[in-house]
Specification:
The protein has 3 domains: about 260 residues, Aldehyde Dehydrogenase, Chain A, domain 1 (3-Layer(aba) Sandwich); about 190 residues, Aldehyde Dehydrogenase, Chain A, domain 2; about 30 residues. The protein is about 45% helix and about 20% strand. The strands form 5 sheets. The protein has a 7-stranded mixed β-sheet with strand order 12-13-14-11-10-16-17, sandwiched between helices.
Length: about 525
């Protein structure tokens, strides 16, 4: 696919306008942005420096004060207008997201759905999350204790390339509603989706300096965002996440990190195999496997292993792989040469050590420079790169297990713990297995969307898959500082009145504490 075949809404002039809108403090090096479908450079973006980030954060600090002073109802109205604009302008958003990420159109549309769903949820729930809470006071009837929530200030977000719409703005929405300003550094591979969303937020009524985008490389612009912000939200690889946490910790800055995964899928003997195979196809090959919650390991009880594997291979061979700005292809491109090299290296290493490729296993330069076939392997074992390392591509190993207990043991035999899936017709058994899998989200009879799209519930990783949570109350309140205000209405909590001997006071307080233990209303 050549540049002449690009959709009109993602043409060079439109992208040039977006690139020119990135503020810098002077002339900057230009970073080329590539179209994965063709390998062509579609436009360049400025490589923002420390000075550019500092200036953006300074502007954000000033703007945040006025934004936080607005009633929460006004902030929510702006986010609801943004919700409508995302749906109205979905064609342009999809075109640009596909252009710079190489994903299939339906995979890009998942992002539009996610952004709108997140905007709606938080716009309607923000006032409740921010409402003052009455808590039990130190002394019954004599201490009035309330908790207030205040914005932290400037939230810095460093987002990855694999979901350029969702991961650019879905974490920003609760931060904005909580009264913060946001400075976003998107991946240098996919900056234009973020810039389009910035424009839609401004059109919806979010002041220019309250949500800003700085472009550039992670090592400079991303590091500066981490250094300058009052709260850091990072999505990306685990090793980079450790560096982000270290830098944030040195500044006593709180952070939320969603990192890598080596996610397991478990198919029990009583599963509906047709549904399980559909779930495996979705969970392994959506976005060409470049999804932090996709599956790279599938464990199937031996009684249904052969039938499941046969169906899974046949379905995978039937997938339509290729470029296209319509809803035709099932699987798009990898994002670039580094990702292709990783996928090829993992497959070649596994095959050289005895794994069998049942389908796929090859790059497809005839389709585009970074396409790789959806690949199913068996015989994965310790010592292979794909047994432990995150591949982040359309590659999955499928192995038989003797029991649910063995499946749980193997699922947990990983440094990661982000997402998992359990397939069974017995809901109670499914929940029991799910609770034993060490992952932040576990889906029963679904690949990942059931948990991810339940935006009222927290989502995040255990073990090396991250810190903190997005979504739900947890994903909102992390962007606030809690403040406890306690009013003592009568008497002192720790000192007796002048006319009461200290010994009598100690005895009276002892009796009061014993009584409080027995009174449900004051426990």
């Amino acid at each position: 696919m050549t540049l002449s075949e690009l959709p009109a809404r993602a043409d060079s002039a439109a992208l040039s306008r977006l690139a020119a809108s990135v503020p810098t403090e002077g002339d900057r090096e230009e970073i080329p942005v590539e179209a994965p479908y063709s390998g062509d450079t579609i436009q360049t973006i400025p490589a923002s420096t420390d000075a550019d980030v500092s200036a953006a954060v300074e502007r954000a600090r000033e703007a945040q004060k006025l934004w936080a002073d607005r009633p929460i109802s006004e902030r929510a109205e702006a986010v609801l207008r943004f919700h409508d604009l995302v749906l109205d302008e979905r064609t342009e958003l999809l075109d640009v997201a596909q252009l710079e990420s190489g994903k299939a159109r339906l995979d890009a549309f998942e992002e539009v759905l996610d952004v709108a769903t997140t905007a709606r949820h938080y716009a309607y729930r923000a006032a409740d999350y921010l409402a003052p809470e009455r808590r039990k006071g130190a002394l019954p009837l004599m201490t009035d204790t309330r908790v207030y929530r205040h914005p932290i200030g400037v939230v810095g977000i460093v987002s990855p390339w694999n979901y350029p719409l969702t991961l650019s703005v879905s974490d920003a929405l609760p931060a904005l509603l909580a009264g913060n300003a946001v400075v976003l550094k998107p991946a240098e591979e996919t900056p234009f989706s973020a810039l389009l969303l910035r424009d839609l937020l401004r059109e919806a009524g979010v002041p220019d300096d309250v949500f800003q985008v700085v472009t550039g490389r992670g090592g400079e612009a991303g590091a500066a965002v981490v250094e300058e912000s009052d709260f850091v939200c990072f999505t990306g690889g685990t090793e980079t996440g450790r560096t982000v946490a270290e830098r944030a910790g040195a500044n006593l800055t709180d952070c939320s990190l969603e990192l890598g995964g080596k996610n397991p899928m478990v198919v029990l003997g009583d599963a509906d195999l047709e549904k399980a195979v559909s779930g495996a196809v979705q969970g392994c090959f959506t976005n060409a496997g470049q999804l932090c919650i996709s599956f790279e390991r599938v464990y199937v009880e031996r009684g249904v292993y052969d039938e499941f594997l046969d169906r899974f291979v046949r379905r995978t061979r039937g997938l339509d792989v290729g470029p296209g700005y319509d809803y035709g292809p099932d699987v798009g491109s990898l994002v670039g040469p580094d990702q292709l090299e990783t996928v090829e290296r993992h497959v070649e290493d596994a095959v050289s050590k005895g794994a069998d490729v049942l389908t796929g296993g090859r790059a497809r330069p005839d389709l585009g420079p970074y396409f790789f076939e959806p690949t199913i392997l068996t015989g994965a074992r310790e010592g292979m790169k794909l047994a432990r390392e995150e591949t982040f591509g359309p590659v999955v190993s499928v192995e038989p297990v003797e029991s649910a207990r063995e499946a749980i043991r193997l699922a947990n035999d990983s440094a990661y713990g982000l997402n998992a899936s359990v397939w069974t017709e017995d809901g109670e058994r499914g929940r029991e297995v799910a609770r034993q899998i060490e992952c932040g989200t576990v889906n029963i009879n679904d690949a990942y969307a059931a948990a991810w799209a339940s935006v009222d519930a927290p989502m995040g990783g255990m073990k090396d898959s991250g810190l903190g949570r997005r979504h739900g109350r947890e994903g909102f309140l992390k962007y606030t500082e809690s403040q406890t205000v306690a009013e003592q209405r009568a008497g002192a909590v720790t000192e007796p009145p002048d006319w009461v001997p200290e010994g009598w006071y100690a005895e009276a307080m002892t009796l009061l504490l014993r009584a409080m233990k027995r009174l449900p209303g004051v426990r």
